[in-house]
Automatic annotation (TrEMBL):
Gene3D superfamilies: NAD(P)-binding Rossmann-like Domain. Residues 295-578 form the Polysaccharide biosynthesis protein CapD-like domain. This is Polysaccharide biosynthesis protein. It comes from the Bacteria. Belongs to the polysaccharide synthase family. The chain crosses the membrane at residues 17-38, 50-71, 83-107, 119-138. Keywords: Membrane, Transmembrane, Transmembrane helix. It comes from Polaribacter atrinae. Pfam families: CoA_binding_3 (PF13727), Polysacc_synt_2 (PF02719).
């Protein structure tokens, strides 16, 4: 009750005149203390002289405080600048007193007015100390009262460098929570055992279960600028195993006005832990190639297409044509770009399967560059719908490629997938056939340069495992993983789209560009990390259920097919796949035949035809495995 009374009282902002009155009172008390100190900590001094001098001291103090405005600061938010204002005000009081005393010595204006210089100096020092100290004491008193006991967090700061010190100060300033920094952790042996602002620096080797329990540590804040992903991964995994919440200080560039606030310290995202450095492709050639050009993006409402559109909107394109058959997502993208002030674009609901409609778009807008991202990509769904996979992934690509060729488009860039490499499913095989068709058209094209980009999974894309896990965690689990050993390559959507734009400037046409995606990552490990990063424990809070491989699914993805290797480009993260030679005329005839007759065939016949086009296509965990047996028997005969 008493605490609540004080808290209600302190929550009211004090009048500046009340602050001024308190400051004047403290000056009065300080003057008594100055005399007390000057006379050897005793009261053996003339009280009548002191009382005669008090009006002058208080008068000069009032003038100084009103001039400097030191009384106007909000006490509970006292900072260095407020303390400096108090210092200036008390210095001005001292200066005025010295000038007044010196003037009176020479001109004898007031006979009874004389203050020893030693008293003035002592008073100046005491006043400065008392005024500043009183403000910080009140601030600390307010913070203690306004902080609930149960909000105390015992934390360790990983990194005893400049960033770690700034993080410590940010935590100490935080009003919402009461952080108790147990210590710093650092790998530098020269720092171990020393203290920063009375906080001890520990070696990471001593941080174990016993240490955590002894100090009741519930958070570790990683405060190392430009930390490498593999080191971040190792640190995070260690503390995840100790059941501690792990947070990270954002990069310096994201601090507000160059200053760090405690609320900017964030949870680690799974994107931070993929054991690969982010790749930022900054090529001025991209700007030169798309500026003042009409650019068409198919599948513009999808994960990749929408990010390509966003990145293109940062350049000075003459016009960006966004086409997609998904009306609502396309509308959302349209509104997003409008809110950003982008005006040089048009969003058109259209389907790449509809050649007539797409050709009307080509005739009207005359695009000069095409980024083809429209595709069906969900492996299990396409395994049940080969017809749709062929119609969109193969024939949709064929429509756009043929029109690009006919209308003399400068550059056609196709977004492919690592699942097209040694495909084990209908989706991957359909994308591989689309690659083959682009290669065939590229050989005969006189003006259009055709390019293929091939990469793995993108984080946060529609159907990606990361948003699926997030939804499953929100629903209380379990998380579903198809196999404990399954691995995938990952990259962020902006990285993938930077690659696509980069590929739109490289080569002479006909190349397949491969992205260096780092190490493949176990999906099971990602699932465990996401559980821990959500503040939960595996398997106590949320379990992981192994469901078995889905139809057509691989354990390990590949970026190169058998017989393929790579050559370097000018960018160390982008390679060109040296593909196997194909008979372009025969392949093109087969694909043309497929486009004419696919609607007359059943699923098995369609897949059988796909296998003749892609000999390396061997079904896995699929109803179509029987076709591979039949083909094998035919070869033996």
């Amino acid at each position: 009750m008493i605490r609540n009374f004080f808290l209600r009282t302190l929550n009211k902002y004090a009048s500046k005149w009340l602050v001024l009155l308190i400051d004047i009172s403290l000056v009065f008390i300080s003057f008594f203390i100055a005399y007390f100190i000057r006379f050897n900590v005793s009261f053996n001094f003339n009280f009548s002289n002191l009382l005669n001098q008090i009006p002058f001291v208080l008068g000069f103090s009032l003038i100084s405080f009103l001039t400097v405005g030191s009384y106007k600061g909000i006490i509970r938010h006292t900072g260095v600048r407020d303390a400096f204002n108090v210092f200036i005000a008390s210095s001005l009081v001292c200066l005025l007193l010295l000038l007044a005393v010196t003037f009176n010595v020479f001109f004898k204006v007031i006979d009874s007015f004389y203050i020893p210089k030693s008293i003035i100096i002592i008073h100046y020092l005491v006043t400065t100390l008392v005024l500043i100290l009183s403000r910080f004491i009140f601030k600390a008193f307010y913070e203690v009262l306004s902080t609930e006991i149960e909000t105390i967090h015992n934390v360790l700061i990983y990194g005893a460098g400049d960033s770690g010190i700034i993080a410590l100060n940010a935590l100490n300033r935080d009003k919402k929570y009461n952080y108790d920094v147990v210590g710093f952790i650092d790998d530098n042996k020269n720092k171990i055992g020393k203290k920063i602002d009375r906080v001890l620096i520990f070696n990471s080797n001593v941080i174990n279960k016993k240490f955590i329990e002894k100090h009741s540590v519930d958070q570790v804040i990683i405060s190392i600028q430009n930390i490498k992903p593999n080191r971040l991964l190792a640190i995070t995994d260690k503390f995840i195993n100790l059941d501690i919440d792990v947070k990270i200080v954002p990069p310096l560039s994201k601090w507000i006005d160059g200053d760090l606030n405690a609320n900017q310290i964030r949870q680690i995202n799974i994107e931070d832990l993929l054991d690969r450095a982010p790749i930022i492709i900054d090529n001025p050639v991209v700007q030169r190639e798309v500026n003042n050009k009409v650019v068409l993006v198919s599948g513009a409402a999808g994960s990749i297409g929408s990010e390509i559109s966003r990145q293109l909107s940062l350049y000075n394109c003459k016009m960006i044509i966004l086409i997609d058959q998904a009306e609502s997502p396309l509308y959302d993208l349209q509104q997003e770009l409008i809110q950003k002030g982008v005006t040089n674009f048009v969003a058109i609901v259209s389907d790449v399967r509809d050649r007539f409609k797409v050709e009307r778009i080509f005739k009207k807008y005359k695009p000069q560059r095409v980024f083809h991202a429209a595709a069906y990509k969900h492996v299990p769904l396409m395994e049940k719908s080969p017809y749709e996979a062929i119609k969109v992934n193969v024939l949709g690509t064929k429509n756009l490629a043929d029109l690009s060729n006919e209308y003399g488009i400068e550059r056609f860039v196709m977004v492919s997938t690592d699942k097209a490499v040694n495909p084990t499913n209908v989706m991957g095989a359909s994308k591989r056939i689309a690659e083959l068709y682009i290669s065939c058209v590229s050989k005969t094209s006189k003006k259009t340069k055709f390019t293929i980009t091939r990469f793995g999974n993108v984080l946060g894309s529609n159907g990606s495992v990361i948003p699926l896990f997030k939804r499953q965690i929100e629903n209380g689990g379990p998380l579903t993983v198809t196999h404990k050993k399954i691995t995938r390559y990952f990259m962020t959507i902006p990285e993938a789209c930077s690659l696509v734009l980069e590929a739109g400037t490289m080569g002479k046409g006909g190349e397949i560009y491969i992205f260096d995606m780092g190490k493949s990552v176990k999906i099971f490990e990602i699932a465990k990390r996401m559980i821990y990063l959500s503040g939960l424990r595996y398997p106590e809070d949320i379990d992981i259920k192994v469901t078995g491989l889905r139809p057509g699914e691989k354990l390990y993805e590949e970026l190169l097919a058998d017989g393929e290797n790579t050559t370097k480009t000018y960018h160390d993260k982008i390679m060109i796949a040296k593909t196997q030679k194909i008979d372009n005329s025969i392949v093109k005839i087969k694909i043309d035949d497929l486009s004419l007759n696919f609607d007359k065939l059943n699923n098995s016949e369609l897949v059988a035809l796909m296998k003749t086009l892609v000999p390396e296509y061997v079904s896995n965990n699929s109803e179509f495995e029987i076709l591979d047996v039949k083909l094998k028997e035919v070869k033996i005969k």
